[in-house]
Amino acid sequence: MTSDEAATDVPPLRRRRRAVAVQEIVTAAERHLTEHGPAAMSLRAVARSLGMTVQALYHYFPSRDHLVTTLIAKAYDDLADAVQGAVDAAPDRTTVPRVVLAAEGYRRWAMVNPERFQLIYGTPLRHYEAPAEGPTTQAVRRMSAIFMRELFGEFSTEQLAAADTPEPSPSFRAHLEHLPPDGLGALPPPAVSLFLDAWGRMHGLVALEVFGHTTFIGAHQAEVFHVAMRNMCRDVHRRIPADRTGLREAGDARQASRP
Questions:
Q1: What mean pLDDT value characterizes the chain?
Q2: Considering only CA atoms, which of 50, 17, 20 is closest in space to residue 32?
Q3: What average pLDDT does the segment 65-91 reach?
Q4: Which of 135, 134, 129, 141 is nearest to 179 (CA)?
Q5: Cβ neighbourhood burial of 229 (10 Å; 0-12, 13-18, 19+)
Q6: Helix (DSSP H) and strand (DSSP E) numbers for the chain
Q7: Can you give the pLDDT at residue 109?
Q8: How far apart are CA 18 and CA 181, in angstroms?
């Protein structure tokens, strides 16, 4: 590669300076979030902490909503990185189900970053509405994909479709058919039901702990969570037929339950 060709691969100086400024603003906003909580998010306060005017900050983020969207998407991405990192760090011969490791990565990130957890899962910010199919949606799907893979990765679509769950109503089944194929729409309806049940159990325990509702457990909260996640994994997996015989029995049971 010639020097001229190499030079064309380097972003223009103005673009590099803008990227640095955006990163500084996001870092300052995250710091403000940690110190004051999501409800106190203020462009003026962020700009002041950087020695900028609000008008100068508007050159990078046209409104508070643009900055909040960036913070939410980044929080989801960082959470997904923590979840994936927890799975990747597991020893090869571990007996702990991978979805349990993922859940524990989720919990650890939430406990270290309670304000950012509150930003994405706490009381919605007033007058803020995430853009439809925007960066926050994509970030959520990325994290959900990790849990879907670790919870259901060992099962075929046929097995998931035969899972032992109540038959969804016609309207709910029609709704599921319109879900994006890169998210829950990739799962058969029984697996969606199992996934939402598992997600609620995991997230509910983490939210209770983050918001201080399980302090009576004392120093044993990590142990309680671990046991609960192993129970959750076992409960989900026992509802999924493990072999051809189980598939046939599940199919017969579904046929018998239909009017």
A1: 89
A2: 50
A3: 94
A4: 141
A5: buried
A6: 13, 0
A7: 98
A8: 35
